[in-house]
Amino acid sequence: AAGAMVFGGVVPYIPQYRDIRRTQNAEGFSTYVCLVLLVANILRILFWFGRHFESPLLWQSIIMIITMLLMLKLCTEVRVSNELNVKRRSFAAADSKDEEIKAPPKRSYLDFDLNYFWHWSKFTDYVQCVLTFTGVTGYITYLWLDSSLFVETLGFLAVFTEAMLGVPQLYRNYQNRSTEGMSIKMVLMWTSGDTFKTVYFILNQAPFQFSICGLLQVFVDITILLQVYLYSYYPQKPVPHTAHPASTKAL
């Protein structure tokens, strides 16, 4: 069971990773799923310093962070290779030698335009963002580590963020009025894995935040499976999206 907890969370992303590599198309997968899991697992690791929970859950977070970075690397490479004549968007300061970068003066250091956030052109920009988030939250945690209220709140935020894992994919499916490009195997594995994980939390008396948010995560997974059924048997016309310079997709 401990081994399944450590490595089981990675398994659902294997078919999605293979589909993206095979088709060279990442449009069906929301990279915001990676963002949610990165934030959740970084917060969970910080929570461990304030309240030591079982080691398999800690190792699971480390393995998941590595997996999500690999998914981001692939999705970024595929997306950029499919986009032509697109201005580069970056998290860090623009390189003046890059002719494609023409950032306005008011964004000379960080591009926090919500239309382009988490839609950068290089994998290194995502790494810089993750490292910045880890540094800031780590420093805050260090300052407030003696506060039990802060530690418990941090634990709740970690598992609640993870419980929202399927929401970006749920919203993307709703936007497209379709689940095409999304690996159904991935969602089925999400559902089975989250069910197993929730039962594991309850039986091993993990902090109550884990059990509550595990149940919420299972509910979101089931809703996505209902979307698969709905959009397969009752096809709907896709909602037109307003294109912006960086991509024809909002997510």
TrEMBL record:
Which InterPro entries does this entry report, sorted A to Z? PQ-loop_rpt (IPR006603), SLC66/Scramblase_ANY1 (IPR052241)
Q: Where are the transmembrane segments?
A: 29-51, 57-75, 126-145, 151-171, 209-231
Q: Where in the cell is it found?
A: Membrane
User: What is any one GO biological process for this UniProt entry?
Assistant: phospholipid translocation
* Keyword Membrane listed: yes
The UniProt entry lists membrane topology as:
Multi-pass membrane protein
An annotated GO cellular component of this protein is: endosome
Q: Which UniProt keywords apply?
A: Membrane, Repeat, Transmembrane, Transmembrane helix
- Which Pfam family, any one, appears in the UniProt record? PQ-loop
Among its keywords, does the record have Lipid metabolism? no
Q: Any idea what this protein is called?
A: Solute carrier family 66 member 2
| Species of provenance | Acanthisitta chloris
